[in-house]
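Residues determine shape. Take a concrete instance:
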Amino acid sequence: MTTTTQNLPLAPGAWALDPQHCTVEFTARHMAISKIRGRFHTFDASVIVGDSLNGSSLSAKVDMSSVDTNNADRDAHLRNSDFFHVEQHPEMTFQSTEIVSDGDNNYGVIGDLTINGVTRQERLDVVFHGTETFPGDGSIHAGFEATATISRTDYGVDFNVPLGAGGFVISDQIGIELDIQLLAPQN
């Protein structure tokens, strides 16, 4: 179900990212038998809530040098030209082109994802977990989680090592997992 004129669950305005309560993580299969997890520590996003989904937008930036897989050697390798080429492409960006309702607090955020200088359209599947008032200062927080699966080779990130029995050390499919808290516009 796609609707763009429904009542939105958030007040119109510019919602701010609460980075202390957000994570930007990814997973890749290693040798086809286990997952390697990583995260980015430095990121920002701008969420504009309009009067409808058509008037709402999301833009985000991730500092690629902030990658952390809990292995310093692997992180250094991810930053070099085999993977992210951080010196040439320091940021990953996402700019929404459409936000659709899938019903029951589920949304699709479709937009342009740029990694390694390559831009492709991707979809984030988003679950809205509601709003809550923070007792410390009375601020309104909204919670979301978003997931997607992308092909890293679509973005020119194609370094790999073949396995003896067939296949490769690193999967092409990369899972993206976001946990996001936003702060309501200040009136």
Remarks:
- Confidence is low (pLDDT under 50) at residues 1-5.
- The chain has one domain: 13-183.
- The CA atoms of residues 108 and 125 lie 5 Å apart.
